[in-house]
Each structure stands twice: as C-alpha cells, then as structure tokens.
Amino acid sequence: MLTRLIPVVVLALASVPMVALAQGTDADSRMTEQTRQVLEAYWKSHDPKYVAEDAVFTMLPTGEEIRGRAAIAKHLDEFYHKSLTAHAEVVSSMFSDNKGLLEAMVVGTHTGEFAGIAATGKNVRVPLAVSYEVEGGLIRRARIYMLVNVLLAQISPASGK
To answer: So where are the chain's domains?
Structure first.
C-alpha cells in the first residue's frame, strides 16, 4: 500500500511551486556583522571588554557556571595563561543576528597546575566548541563544549611527551 502512495506524494510535491527563501533585512545583516566582529575580536584577545557584566559561561562537561565579567576574565586567564600557555585556533565559525558558533582547537603547553596535575611541559591540542549569544555588542552567554578528558589524557604523567 505504501509503495503505491509514494508516486502520488512525489507528484503532489512536484506540483507545489518552489518559493525562494526570503533575504534577511539590512538590519539583520548589520546585526550578524556586529556579532561576527564582536566574536572574532574576542577570540583573538579573550579581552573581557567583549563580555557583558552579567554574562554566564557554562562548562557543559561539568555544568559549572561562571557568572559575571570579572569571574569569566579570571577563569580565562587561569586556563589560557596559568594552567596552559595556549590559544584557540579557529577551525570554523558561523554567525547569525545574535548567535555565533566556534569550532576550534586549544593549542599550547601545560605550564601550570590543572585539575590537580602539576605542570608537565607537555604540548596539548584539545577540541573545543562554543555556542555564544551576543546582545548589544557584548557576549551574554557561552556554552562551552571542551573535551576535558582529551586534555587530561595529554597532560597525564603516565602519557608520553
């Protein structure tokens, strides 16, 4: 019975006129461009001036929430400059009017204590994905997906250099 209906459904769909996707408005384009500019500048510098005072960054693997510009700045400094000497290499990104997605690799050296593991001097390369919400030219929320298990395996004293 189903095989007899398929040609009918295909013919019915074929008779539906194709509708062109509506283009975004100039205001949408400007908002998307602003989101792109804010996020790209933030990714290069991790400067907290791009983060709203009441922003929330959530570490998805643990559920930990870092609240507020000052706490977020401290967390970023500890991760990228104290536990590691590292940066995020952008693999790909996407933007919309108030959202951005980042796919990156955290690349660097384990130079300070992380998760109870003393500095090993080992090189790290860890997958990272972040979903951002931007409002009024500032990052309001970030949901961070980092493969902490990969980082821990790379800096483990049992792993090779």
So the answer is: 25-155
What one-character DSSP code corresponds to residue 53?
E
Which CATH topology does 25-155 take? Nuclear Transport Factor 2; Chain: A, (3.10.450)
Q: CA 121, 66, 132: angle at the middle one, nearest 5?
A: 90
Give the pLDDT of residue 161. Answer: 55
pTM of the model: 0.78
How big is the CA angle at 121 (ends 117 and 126), to the nearest 5 degrees?
75
- DSSP secondary structure letters along 60-129: TTTTEEEESHHHHHHHHHIIIIIIEEEEEEEEEEEE-SSEEEEEEEEEEEE-S-BTTBPP---EEEEEEE
Look up residue 158 and give its DSSP letter: T
Query: Which letter does DSSP use for residue 50 in this model?
Result: G
What is the DSSP secondary-structure string of 118-149? Answer: PP---EEEEEEEEEEEEETTEEEEEEEEE-HH
Q: pLDDT of 71-113, one tens digit each?
A: 999 999 999 999 999 999 999 999 998 999 999 999 999 999 9
